[in-house]
């Protein structure tokens, strides 16, 4: 039987513009880039990491380089139940698995995620063209602690009330 030579499709991408991609295609692209030991940048979608990562923010995910993420670190991983790419925070560690959850909902967690499902670590975050550091620095330990206890949400809600009372916008 004669094998046919298949030419892979070429992606044409105008410099400075975005290439819309999501779902399993995004997951495969991210894994392929990280496997080449290169970071990958993409736009985050969803509200599960608010207020630290908002929908539309641009994040950079870098390879883990065989190290285990630390408590508070924001990681990209393959969700064990639905095989989707998810970006959430490590809030605890047990043996070779990590308890991971989003910052905005303490009632829902991703549960224990094994090291095999970890894809990379979020190293940079941009919002509206400006670099954001809050949530990725040393304060990540406090955020993980508050998130694990379910206190992060009530603290956020109180801050929103104070901002509204004082008339502070965003």
Description:
There is one protein chain. Helix content is 23%, strand content 26%. The chain has helices at residues 23-35, 140-149, 151-166; strands spanning 40-43, 58-62, 74-78, 85-94, 97-101, 111-114, 118-127, 130-131. The protein has a single domain (23-166), classed as Umud Fragment, subunit A (Ribbon). With 170 residues, it is of the alpha+beta class. Strands 1, 2, 3, 4, 5, 6, 7 and 8 form an 8-stranded antiparallel beta sheet that branches. It contains 3 helices and 8 strands; from the N terminus they run αββββββββαα.
Low confidence ranges: 8-13
Please report the number of helical segments: 3
Computed over alpha carbons, the radius of gyration is 18 Å
Q: What is the straight-line distance between the termini?
A: 64 Å
**CATH superfamily descriptor:** Umud Fragment, subunit A
Structural class, from secondary structure content?
alpha+beta
Would you count the extended β strands for me?
8
Primary descriptors:
globular; single chain; Umud Fragment, subunit A; 8 strands; 170 residues; alpha+beta
Itemize the secondary structure elements and their pairings:
Layout: H1 23-35, E1 40-43, E2 58-62, E3 74-78, E4 85-94, E5 97-101, E6 111-114, E7 118-127, E8 130-131, H2 140-149, H3 151-166
Antiparallel strand pairs: 1-2, 2-7, 3-4, 3-7, 4-5, 5-6, 7-8
Can I get a quick summary?
With 170 residues, the protein is of the alpha+beta class. The protein has helices at residues 23-35, 140-149, 151-166; strands spanning 40-43, 58-62, 74-78, 85-94, 97-101, 111-114, 118-127, 130-131.
């Amino acid at each position: 039987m004669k094998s046919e030579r298949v030419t892979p499709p070429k992606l044409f991408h105008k410099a400075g513009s975005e290439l819309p991609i999501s779902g399993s295609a995004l997951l495969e692209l991210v894994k392929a880039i990280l496997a080449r030991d290169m970071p990958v940048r993409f736009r985050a979608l969803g509200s599960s990491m608010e207020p630290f990562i908002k929908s539309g923010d641009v994040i950079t995910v870098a390879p883990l380089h065989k190290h285990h993420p630390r408590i508070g670190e924001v990681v990209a991983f393959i969700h064990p139940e639905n095989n989707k790419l998810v970006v959430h925070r490590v809030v605890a560690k047990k043996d070779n698995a990590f308890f991971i959850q989003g910052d905005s909902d303490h009632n829902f967690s991703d549960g224990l995620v094994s090291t095999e499902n970890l894809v990379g670590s979020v190293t940079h975050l941009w919002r509206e063209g400006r670099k954001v550091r809050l949530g990725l620095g040393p304060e990540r330990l406090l955020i993980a602690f508050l998130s694990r206890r379910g206190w992060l949400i009530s603290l956020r809600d109180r801050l929103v009330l104070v901002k509204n009372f004082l008339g502070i916008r965003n």
